[in-house]
Amino acid sequence: MKVLVVHAHPVPESFNGAVHRTVVEALRRGGHDVVSLDLYERGFDPVLSREGRLGHLDPPSTKPDIAEDAAHLRWADMLVLTYPTWWGGPPAVLKGWLDRVWTSGVAFELPPGGNRIVGRLRNIRRLEVVTTHGSPRSVNVLQGQPGRLTFLRGMRTMCHPLCRPSWLAMYGLDTAADADRAAFLARVDRRFSRR
Amino acid sequence: MVVLVVHAHPDPDSLGAALARAAVEGLRDAGRQVELVDLYADRFDPRMTADERRAYESDAPILDPTVQRYAELLGRADTVVFVYPTWWFGMPAILKGFLDRVFVEGVAFRLDPRTRKVRPGLTHVRRLVGITTYGSPRAYVRFFGDPGRRTVARTIRPMCGVRCRVRWFGLHAVDTATAEERQAFIDRVRREVAR
Which of A66, A90, A118, B39 is deepest in the core (most CB within 10 A)? Predict the structure, then answer.
């Protein structure tokens, strides 16, 4: 499969950095064609500008600054996101990757006069989120899991109608022992070795 | 105590900017002292840096003067008002990064030294207000679970005082709203924001 992995953590030696490397290595071992975008490493600017906002329904040809990322998004059969959950959702750099790259003509179409967008990423048949939470699962459930809803319910509707979303999450990282961390990395490795 | 209004729209001529102005006016008319943070005007960088992430669990997690200024304003607020357009189900990246970088330990929460559990740090905040516009009609916003609203009402609210109330103003299907509907929404925000 053609796999796009998008990673969002500022510290390469972090646990999330290890998660990201584990995903990419497991997929490559499995013979997949992997493109990995490390948003921090690339210095990705997540702020949609005034010009970007005013032209947000203009065709992709008017947006050379996001052409490369948009092409990767249109190319992939599988999209994998690796990030830490901060305040319920993805870090700003990843939220801004959605704001700036998932544009009209790339990720969706807005029919003239309508107010319901139609997904255009029919190429994406699998959407996989791998994320960590500092607090326990029960706390995150109480807090409404906005990040989980954003991807599993929201962004997936832009993908293939039969796209299967999946959620692989570690909870309680703040109190996790080294063994818990290693066990999660092993789980990540197993999951993506089988993909 | 002050009201902190956090505004996140790139276009000063937008409905979002008009809503921020209406909120400030409505609050001042009610006799409140208002501090306005315009994240785009401040050219706020919403990306938590690697150094900030490394300092996150230290006694001094704030490394940037702008973040320090925002944290001081937040510390003086009994009401926090978020004004933003809903993009991809939630806050624009620039506002998500305001949470990521400013709502750190010692400001928004503290970690219990023994159990490492998160304890509220914004107990002086008695009221959270969200003012947002949605491209989608109300039924879709409801179906997708409104992750942006959840972020404020369920993820941030537990960091505030136990009796903290949440007030929400949303204009749905904004792309097809008439000029009268937009104006009516602006007027409602001005009239009711301080209630």
Answer: A90
Instruction: Tell me which residue in A50, A86, A154 faces B88 most closely, judged by beta carbons.
Output: A154
User: Is pLDDT above 90 for A101?
Assistant: yes
Instruction: Determine how β-strand B118-120 pairs with β-strand B127-133.
Output: unpaired
Asked whether the CA dihedral A59, A8, A41, A2 is positive or negative, the reply is negative
* ipTM for the complex shown: 0.97
- B155 touches A: beta carbon within 8 Å: yes
Q: What percent of chain B has pLDDT over 90?
A: 95
Q: Where are the beta strands (DSSP E) in chain A?
A: 2-7, 33-38, 78-84, 108-109, 118-119, 126-132, 164-170
What is the average per-residue pLDDT within A83-107?
A: 98
The beta-carbon neighbor of B94 closest among A9, A47, A153 is A47
pLDDT reported for residue B190: 98
Distance from CA of A25 to the nearest CA of B (A): 24
> What parts of chain B have a pLDDT lower than 70?
none
Q: Does B48 touch chain A (CB under 8 A)?
A: yes
- B116/A110 CB distance under 8 A: no
Contact B50, A10 (CB under 8 A): yes
8 Å CB contact between A144 and A88:
yes
